[in-house]
Amino acid sequence: MFGTESSLSMFLNTLTPKFYVALTGTSSLISGLILIFEWWYFRKYGTSFIEQVSVSHLRPLLGGVDNSSSNNSNSSNGDSDSNRQSVSECKVWRNPLNLFRGAEYNRYTWVTGREPLTYYDMNLSAQDHQTFFTCDSDHLRPADAIMQKAWRERNPQARISAAHEALEINEIRSRVEVPLIASSTIWEIKLLPKCATAYILLAEEEATTIAEAEKLFKQALKAGDGCYRRSQQLQHHGSQYEAQHRRDTNVLVYIKRRLAMCARRLGRTREAVKMMRDLMKEFPLLSMFNIHENLLEALLELQAYADVQAVLAKYDDISLPKSATICYTAALLKARAVSDKFSPEAASRRGLSTAEMNAVEAIHRAVEFNPHVPKYLLEMKSLILPPEHILKRGDSEAIAYAFFHLAHWKRVEGALNLLHCTWEGTFRMIPYPLEKGHLFYPYPICTETADRELLPSFHEVSVYPKKELPFFILFTAGLCSFTAMLALLTHQFPELMGVFAKAFLSTLFAPLNFIMEKVESILPSSLWHQLTRI
Q1: Residue 321 lies in a domain
Q2: Same-domain check for residues 339 and 253
Q3: pLDDT score for 86
Q4: Kind and range of the H or E element at 187?
Q5: 388 and 503 assigned to the same domain
Q6: Could you tell me which residues are beta bridge partners of residue 175?
Q7: Which of UniProt's keywords are assigned here (predicted)?
Q8: DSSP collapsed to 3 states, 454-468
Q9: Quick check: is 81 in a domain?
Q10: CA distance 179 to 189
Q11: In the structure, what pLDDT confidence band is assigned to residue 211 with cuts at 50, 70 and 90?
Q12: Are residues 417 and 487 in the same domain?
């Protein structure tokens, strides 16, 4: 026993201060490298590398049970339901208030040198155009065949050139001589309709102002209306004619909606409202364009709050999909009734009235649906141009909503103050939003990944709920800081730190020495001598 103690004391006495400096410095370096790697991995993948490895590889070795395998037979139906829910929640939607590429997005690029649209977003738009503006019989008409290829083209200049080519070909082939009277030598020139989709592409991408885009859309309307009327008469003659009519309907609705948006941009808001209402009456089943959201924004600009309430009564229904526009507009109308007289101090003294409680509940409902919006409305985060596609309940939808509706909230006196005082209370009702919701389904976990694809790289994507730093990052940060401090102190005060190190090691081995003394006192000396020799 005494030999062990003497060898330990001799070992400690032989350690020089340089050894302690090297030991602590090396420990600090290694823990620092681990910390840097862990932080990089967390920022890129949203999880701790050490934690992921331990869960994936060490838990099975230690006898952990894989819940997915143990509950496989019980959760097969539930998995299919949750997968369907996840797909529907993470579906990317066309932004009903999307800007004009040539007149607005490109002007932003010319001024700032930044690209406001991602390749993923523009690729989704190209797919939408192919779905809405093409059909299987396009190869029968040369202009439509050219436009079918143009929608697939990635280069903007190539698309614009193809649109001009389609118009030129159609112009050459449109002048057809037909007899005015049978068996007569009197002839007339009959003008065939021009290519509406070519005008759409030029209005969207070549026009540099909204006024130019409106002129091109009016030409597109003239061509598209003629095609729609002809295909409407032939739609029951076969599946080919039915597909053409469906395509022509999509083209006509798109043109009229964009014309209404041009009028709204140019300040003719009442005209835009009339065009939107007429369009919704003429095509009530085409809800995929979400024209009612354009109508709500225009009515708010006119401060026609009664009409806004009437639109909400029709579309804010439990059976219809929600959106930030629906939820936050409903909250704005209820806040408008009480916001001008609302005071948090007075409300804390006397309590909330029924109207104030309704307004607060509407704000909580809206914030639960999309928790990213308040920071943009309260100007806690800077806005960027909205993308052409949005993810409902995501940061992209919040940007698209706040970009157009911030002015409407500012116009209602006290509305932003009420929002500022009450919106964070939503999170107390849903402490675990990824597991259980209050008024809506649990918040989807896929929004961050999809928003990073939709939003430009210079924008800091809003993440909800905020991811807490993993334990191993905090642990390695503490370890790195502690060992670095020890290395610094050992380098500055080598003798003193040597004394502390020896005292620490002696204290650390004290319980072991105590146990060995007890064992030596219990066992016979001869037996202990034999064990030590072994």
Answers
A1: yes
A2: no
A3: 42
A4: strand 187-191
A5: no
A6: 191
A7: Membrane, Transmembrane, Transmembrane helix
A8: HCCCCCCCCCCCCCC
A9: no
A10: 9
A11: very high
A12: no
165 and 45: one domain?
no
Q: What was the pLDDT predicted at 342?
A: 80
Which one has a higher pLDDT value, 509 or 368? Answer: 368
DSSP codes, 156-177: HHHHHHHHHHHHHHHHHHHEEE
The Cα–Cα gap between 19 and 151 comes to 70
**Residues of the domain holding 259:** 118-174+191-288
Tally of CB atoms within 10 A around 441: 13
- Pull the structure tokens for residue 88: 């529907």
CA distance 213 to 103: 8
Cα angle for residues 6, 8, 12 (degrees, 5° grid): 115
Q: What is the token pair recorded at 434?
A: 């990824």
**Would the pTM of this model clear 0.85, i.e. be above it?**
no
**In this structure, are 210 and 163 located in the same domain?**
yes
The Cα diameter of the chain in Å comes to 138
C-alpha atoms less than 13 angstroms from C-alpha of 521 in its C-beta half-sphere = 6
Number of independent structural domains in the chain: 4
Where among 227, 258, 288 does a domain terminate? 288
The answer to whether the CB of 26 falls within 8 A of the CB of 534 is no
254, 288, 322: which is the final residue of a domain? Answer: 288
Q: Both tokens of residue 277?
A: 């209402």
Encoded tokens for 39 = 């932080």
- Inside any domain, residue 216: yes
Q: Of 100, 81, 97, which is closest to residue 89 (Cα–Cα)?
A: 81
**pLDDT value, residue 67:** 42
DSSP H or E run through 393: none
Within a domain: 43: yes
Residues 51, 143, single domain; the answer is no
The pLDDT tens digits of the residues spanning 238-281 come to 788 788 888 889 999 999 999 999 999 999 999 999 999 999 99
- Residue 424 tokens read as 């964070």
Residue 228 has pLDDT above 70, yes or no: yes
**Residue of 534, 338, 343, 368 whose CA lies nearest to 444:** 368
Neighbours of 129 (CB within 10 A): 21
Using only the alpha carbons of the chain, give its radius of gyration. 35
Q: Reduced to 3 states, what is the DSSP secondary structure of residue 286?
A: coil
Q: Are 298 and 272 in contact (CB under 8 A)?
A: yes
Is 430 in the same domain as 510? no
Stretch (H or E) spanning 320 = none
Are 142 and 284 members of one domain? yes
Torsion of CA 506, 511, 513, 515, to 10 degrees: 180
| Cβ atoms 404, 298 nearer than 8 A | no
What are φ and ψ of residue 188, in 5° steps?
A: -130, 160
9-18 contacts, C-beta under 8 A, 24 or more apart: 12/502, 12/505, 12/506, 13/502, 15/498, 15/501, 16/498, 17/490, 17/494, 17/495, 17/497, 17/498, 18/494
- Tell me if residue 390 falls in helix, strand or coil: strand
d(CA 242, CA 265): 35
